[in-house]
Write a structure and sequence with these properties.
The chain starts with 16 loop residues before the first strand and ends with a strand. The protein contains two helices and five strands, in the order E-E-H-H-E-E-E. The chain is mainly β and about 100 residues long. The chain folds into two domains: about 1-60, no CATH class; about 65-98, no CATH class. Strand 4 and strand 5 (about 90-95) form a beta hairpin. The strands form two sheets. Strands 3-4-5 form a three-stranded antiparallel sheet, with no helix packed on it. Helices cover about 10% and strands about 25% of the residues.
Length: about 100
Amino acid sequence: MGYHPFPIPAATASRAYKNIYGSTINGCVYCGFCSSHACEMGAKGNVQSAVLPVLMGDKNFELRTHARVMKVNLDSSGQARGQRHVRGRAGTRSRAAG
């Protein structure tokens, strides 16, 4: 058939490390499914595997599915105090804390 497969470029870790959030990212075993699947080895440094597990343990964290943040509200010191978002296909607008 004349195909010449090659590995795709992927920003995976070559060895295990702990990120700044305390999540361990494992080393890549080069299985070849990075582009379209979750990583069985836990080597991808994406939000779902590297950040979300830590956030889920925080009592102030709330996951809002099917929402897009439109603006983050900051106080005078630059700290995030709330956000405005659009949720769902109907475009329901909500505002949280601030």
